[in-house]
Amino acid sequence: MSDPRLAELSRLLPALALKTESADLAFYGRDWTRRWTPAPLAIALPSSIEEVQGIVRWANAQRVALVPSGGRTGLSGGAVAANGELVVSLERMNRVLGFHSADRLLTVQAGMALEAVHQAALGHGLIYPVDFASRGSCSIGGNIATNAGGIRVVRYGNTRDWIAGLTLVTGSGDVLELNRGLVKNSSGYDLRQLVIGAEGTLGIVVEAQLRLTDPPPASQVMLLALPSFEALMQVFERLRARLTLSAFEFFTDRALHHVAAHGAQRPFAEDYPYYVVTEFDGDSPDAALEAFGTLLEAELVVDGVIAQSQAQAAALWHLREGITEALARHLPYKNDVSVRIGAMPRFLAETQVLLGREYPHFEVVWFGHIGDGNLHINVLKPEAMENADFVHECGRVTALLAQSLQNHGGSISAEHGIGLVKKPYLSSTRSAAEVALMRGIRRAFDPAGIMNPHKLFDADADAVVPAYGETA
Description:
The chain is built from 15 helices and 16 strands.
């Protein structure tokens, strides 16, 4: 091993797996963003908390930055390693460590995939209810790092609502056991909640205690076609008043076009401008038909279908969950924003005008978790346009969008994190006083500034790596 720093790491931790091949550096050094050329020092794959501690202590001594890595399905550059950092992949720390039936707690290592957690919970007759399309590849540690939400937040909330405790290796190499699965704990600051959503800037989450719950009643899935954008929130409010909703997701005709081109079957003979897929308790099927009838009579929907089997329900959900994969080849510029549900109608109307005015020559694909105030805006890159020019133009419009979000009390990142991509717009969501406090918290957990530096907000002047440049 030619780099003396890596030779020292191997001497200190002889069982630690290290990857240095160029293909591995490229694979582990990026997430789903493609804006930075990956250039990590190496990839470390620890298999124990002790090895993670050893890596952190080595990094402090050698002044090497660390980038924690889960499934790297993020969309904000939070797992990018482009300046000689050591990527710490937890993919080998992927086991169930225990189940406590009285507490309904499942203890897992942070590298475990979300889908594997779902299966483990079902093995005990329970569910871990946080869910999203990348369930097969995203990890629990990554979900915790961004406080991921997903498709059933309407009923179950975000990741932070289901984390009963976690184990963290801080930037100093200390091991903290936070909250220890307690339901009630009024003994000072809840550091667990600080770590959730911190994007790996306070340390490396190595274990988590997950709350499980009873499976919901049998559900039904319904797809609705809407005649106008203005009908969207009215449909949500009327369905919420009549049905017990688990999910309420919206997408446009352009989103459906791309998913259909990617292999999905179109649900209706005709095309419509807007669609909603909603899931709700199926213990009263007549209520769904009655609700649909009232929407049809009020001219808020123009067509609809209720799944008659699990296969049909999966096909309807695929129209929504398949969007991200279908758009990937177009290298979309993504905005992931949120406002209060009550502010959504005005914000949607303003945003539609803003994007129509500022992106006249770009295709914009909308979808999102409207039921919890979260909207995803995907701008597709024209094939003939240089990526740097495209990113610059999208950044200009994102600054305008951020100002609108600030006016509506919203957030520039609902569930993907700030990372590198949204860092210039953090001030639209957080005040200068808040950012100053966050900096202080970060220094307390990570005095040397080695943990995922330059993510979330600009690093302090004595950071261990230089600032990131825009490349692709």
